[in-house]
Every structure is written in structure tokens, then in C-alpha cells.
Design goal:
The chain has 10 helices and 7 strands. By secondary structure, the chain is mostly helical. The chain has a domain of 150 residues. The strands form 3 sheets. The protein has a 3-stranded mixed sheet. The protein has a two-stranded antiparallel ribbon with strand order 1-2. The longest helix has 23 residues.
Length: 281
């Protein structure tokens, strides 16, 4: 879950603009949801299931919530055997017959694959202060690891951008995906300490949305009472309805009662922020 040039330009420069103008500028740089050909076939009603237990075991071992409710990854605690297990898990997903799976099973697979690939990418460069410092993407104006080929699926090399913006976003068109894809940053929604699975994917999406919206990373207020949101809502504003009002209505859907009451009279977004520090312990 990321942008390329926009993140480097706006975050590093420390610019702070209202969402109405900010989202328009940021969305010009944010990757669009454009379907890659060849990834839309599935078998409706298929009983086949993918084994995500190796990923769940690694998450349970290395992911912990800190006192502020932020999921931290103990990258430095990954043993050689853990790294091998992670690589084998990623490879196993890449060799899965995707077309033989039902669409919810594919959804869970792609989410888990993205998150596992991000962790694997960080491990290959660790220690780093930010995932944005892993400048492996090709292209003069690219930054971070997002466009570098990170996995091979069905014999095709894919980047993190390919998975997020070329497969998941266009094929599922569900804004809640922004709450389950973890980019390795503190500002990103939490890396869940257990793999996603198809039978419970909707419940898991809903739960992750509530966690993020009700955390200061997702929604907070400035000293004058202005609404401050995560830059995720600026980068991908169109996924949340395309306007301040639509974003606010989305937030109200998941807000706990106290936050929902505070959002009720608000009609605009004052600012958007994001913390790109690595989500390490």
C-alpha cells in the first residue's frame, strides 16, 4: 500500500495541504488500479484451500502489538530457518493453481502473498530505517522496492505494485483492502498476527478497518479540532468515494461511538499525515 514519487515528494518535503487539493495532487502520482491481463480466471464454488499455516506461524512468532497498538515486526529475530520457511511459503503460493481456486480463496492468497513479500523484502535489506530506503525499483523517478520484481506466480515475475494495483485493487474493488495490505511502515495498518483466510475474509476485513479508523494513525484531530486522516485516504481517495464527504462517511461507518459523534458535524478534512518509519520493534 504505497505511492511512488508522491510519497517521496510530499512526505520528505513535509508538505501539509487540505485533502481536497492534496488528494488531487497525490492521486496524480499514486498508482492507478489497472488490471493486469491474465489474472481474472477462477473456479466458482471450488472447495480447494491454500495452506497459510507457515505464514501464520511466522507472524505469531515475530509480530507483537506495542503499547500504542501498533503491530511491530521483529525483523532482527528472524532466524535462518525462519527465512527459509518464509521463502518456501512464498514459493508455494507462486506455484498454486490459481484458476482452480474460488475468488475468496484467491483474495486471501494475494493479500498474504503481498504481506509476506514485503517482510521478505525488508529482511533482505535489514537493518533499514524505512522501507522507502530500499531503492530497488527500476526507473529514474522510482523509489522504494515497489516496482522491483519480488515474487514469481504461475511462472510470471510480479512486483508489489503488480499485486496491489494490477491484481487486487482492480479485481476486487474493495476499499477495505487498504486496511489489510501492510507496506512495512508505522503509518500503515497493522500487519495482522495471523494469516488471512477465505472463510473469514469479510470478517477480517471489517475488523482491520475498525482497528485502523479508530487509531490515531487513521483518524485524529489537530489542536483546532480539524480532522486529520492518514494519507492513505489522499493517495487512494477515489477508492473511498473521491471526495472529503465520501471519505468522512466511510470513516463514520467504522468509527466507535465517541469518534462517530465527533465526526458527525465535520464536512471537510484539514490535513493528511503518514509515518514512513519501519514497523520494527
Amino acid at each position: 500500500m504505497h505511492t511512488q514519487m508522491s510519497r517521496r515528494l510530499f512526505v520528505t518535503a513535509g508538505l501539509s495541504l487540505p485533502l481536497m487539493g492534496f488528494s488531487t495532487a497525490d492521486s496524480l502520482f499514486a498508482p492507478k488500479a489497472k488490471a493486469l491481463p491474465g489474472w481474472d480466471a477462477f473456479t466458482q464454488g471450488s472447495p480447494r484451500r491454500v495452506d497459510h499455516s507457515p505464514w501464520s506461524a511466522l507472524l505469531a512468532k515475530h509480530v507483537r502489538l506495542d503499547s500504542a497498538g501498533i503491530a511491530r515486526v521483529n525483523y532482527g529475530g528472524f532466524s535462518g530457518a525462519d527465512k527459509v520457511d518464509l521463502t518456501r511459503y512464498i514459493d508455494s503460493l507462486g506455484k498454486t493453481d490459481l484458476q482452480a481456486l474460488d475468488k475468496p480463496e484467491q483474495f486471501a492468497l494475494w493479500i498474504n502473498l503481498y504481506n509476506a513479500a514485503v517482510v521478505n523484502t525488508v529482511l533482505a535489506a535489514y537493518p533499514v530505517a524505512s522501507v522507502q530506503d530500499i531503492d530497488t525499483s527500476p526507473g529514474l523517478f522510482s523509489s522504494g522496492p515497489w516496482k522491483a520484481k519480488a515474487v514469481t506466480v504461475s511462472g510470471k515475475a510480479l512486483s508489489l505494485d503488480d499485486i496491489e494495483h494490477g491484481i487486487i485493487r482492480p479485481h476486487w474493488q474493495d476499499a477495505r483492502v487498504h486496511y489489510v495490505l501492510n507496506c512495512g511502515a508505522v503509518g500503515c495498518p497493522n500487519l495482522r498476527a495471523k494469516a488471512y483466510d477465505a472463510p473469514r475474509i469479510n470478517v477480517q476485513l471489517e475488523a482491520q478497518a475498525r482497528i485502523y479508523v479508530n487509531h490515531p494513525r487513521g483518524v485524529t484531530f489537530d489542536p483546532s479540532g480539524g480532522l486529520v486522516v492518514s494519507k492513505i485516504y489522499a493517495w487512494f481517495c477515489d477508492d473511498f468515494g473521491g471526495t472529503d464527504g465520501a471519505v468522512i462517511r466511510h470513516l463514520q461507518r467504522y468509527a466507535a461511538p465517541e469518534l462517530a459523534n465527533r465526526l458527525m458535524p465535520i464536512t471537510g478534512i484539514a490535513d493528511a499525515r503518514y509515518d514512513w518509519a519501519l514497523n520494527t520493534v
